[in-house]
Amino acid sequence: MKSCGLRLCLLLTLTLTLFDYVTCAKILAVFHAPSFSHYILGAKLLRAVAEKGHHVTMISPFPLKDPPKTWRDIVLEDYAKGFNFGNLLNLATMSGYRKEITVNEVGCELIRRVATHPSFIGVINSNETFDLIIVERFMNEAILGLSHRFSAPYIVFSTIGYSRWTNDMVGNPGSTAYIPDLYLHYGNNMTLWQRFHNTFFYCFANLYRHFFTLPKQRSILKETFPYAPPLEDLYYNASLILMNTHVSIKYAVPSVPNMIDIGGFHVSPPKPLPKDLKQYMDDASNGVIYFSLGSIFLSKDMTPEIRDIILRVFSKFKQRVVWKWEDDITFSSPSNVRFEKWISQQDILAHPNLKLFITHGGLLSTIEAIYHGVPLLAIPIFAEQFMNAAEIESLGYGLKLYYTDITEENFSHLVNELLNNAR
Ligand SMILES: *[C@@H]1O[C@H](CO)[C@@H](O)[C@H](O)[C@H]1NC(C)=O
Ligand SMILES: *[C@@H]1O[C@H](CO)[C@@H](O)[C@H](O)[C@H]1NC(C)=O
Ligand SMILES: *[C@@H]1O[C@H](CO)[C@@H](O)[C@H](O)[C@H]1NC(C)=O
Ligand SMILES: *[C@@H]1O[C@H](CO)[C@@H](O)[C@H](O)[C@H]1NC(C)=O
């Protein structure tokens, strides 16, 4: 009798263990922003989930390279085709107000295209089931209809950290008295006037959203998911928010317990650089400056005058320079500057001779540089880069220079400061 009980117990334990082993979730993720840096974050996060055995279906503009077995791509082919941002340099001088309006308009148009894309429609009309929805937060309230369609809770991923984009979803306070808005360029030590303007801008952004953006999102929701509840019921129902930031690189901000900082998760252990580039860096006895303005605004989009100012300044330094330049070289340059069409950024940042990173101040570049302990000179161009640049300077891991302020004197002064100030 006793041994029978024992056997039953064993069997039960075994069965339960087995159950645990075979439990995996079906996850539907949407990272629709047509920007590769947004995609990288989503892909890295979801790959880790899929490698744990969960089934991941990812809707995005890009396919994944060598995907895990439990991975399925639904590629939004050509959906952002024909988008013309005009001259990207105009973005560098655009006011916060204009930026807010532009991003909202572009965001609504993008989500309308996603919602009407045959691949997306295919998923919502299928008889598939999902246990969890993960969406990137990018002007896409209407997409939350997926949560209702599949009766699944949803997680939001924020590429930009704490902001008015996600705070209100979970009732997180974001005081305008000391937290600068993402489209302004204030640090966290604002003057009274800046605090006032920050608050005024917050009101403007919310009113604009209320009267212009949300009505569009509601109509997209209604057309795509006819049986969905009102947008607000979905919007205020997030289960978890994953923040691409970290307490160590951020001002002190309030955070409710279901907002989790995961910033830095996309940083990978360094891989070896291409042989000749590695040699070039190894031989740089005075160190190397790395220059890259990211993947949207390209170095070749700079005006020739600014490019020549930068080259003249570089020629005065002993350091070697590696410059990410995406086009053919049709101009003369000093002998200490080397151009590369594409560089594996994390690997070059990991090189011990790297002394300075001149960047547009995107959040990914910033996090990677902090991880590898490289000081930054931020030249913000668009989106939330002005806020990032102010933060970089406020928190002391770099300096900033506006594109429109680039002069030989200014640029040279800051590069010199960053290379020689031991702080
Ligand atoms: C789902 O639809 C496919 C055909 O589109 C069908 O073969 C399959 O049996 C359906 N599955 C369920 C669970 O209804
Ligand atoms: C809110 O989320 C919960 C838990 O996922 C779910 O049961 C509920 O139906 C959701 N409400 C709406 C309006 O989607
Ligand atoms: C904030 O700025 C004021 C002047 O605007 C300055 O006196 C003060 O020291 C600054 N505080 C910090 C923490 O930087
Ligand atoms: C140099 O930069 C500072 C601060 O960024 C700016 O106020 C100044 O106008 C710049 N000087 C020139 C000559 O552009």
What features would you highlight for this structure?
alpha/beta; Rossmann fold; 2 domains; 6-stranded parallel beta sheet; 14 helices; globular; binds 2-acetamido-2-deoxy-beta-D-glucopyranose; glycosyltransferase; transferase; UDP_glycos_trans_CS
Quick rundown:
With 423 residues, this protein is an alpha/beta fold.
Describe this structure in words.
Its main location: membrane. It is found in: Membrane. Belongs to the UDP-glycosyltransferase family. The chain is of the alpha/beta class and 423 residues long. The protein has two domains: 21-261, Rossmann fold (3-Layer(aba) Sandwich); 275-420, Rossmann fold. Helix content is 40%, strand content 14%. The protein has a seven-stranded parallel beta sheet with strand order 3-2-1-4-5-6-7, covered by helices on one side. Strands 10-9-8-11-12-13 form a six-stranded parallel beta sheet, sandwiched between helices. Helix 4 packs parallel to helix 7 and helix 10 (304-315) packs across helix 14 (408-420). The chain is globular, with a radius of gyration of 24 Å. The model has no long low-confidence stretch (mean pLDDT 92). Residues 147-148, 153, 229, 233-234, 237 line the site of one 2-acetamido-2-deoxy-beta-D-glucopyranose (NAG).
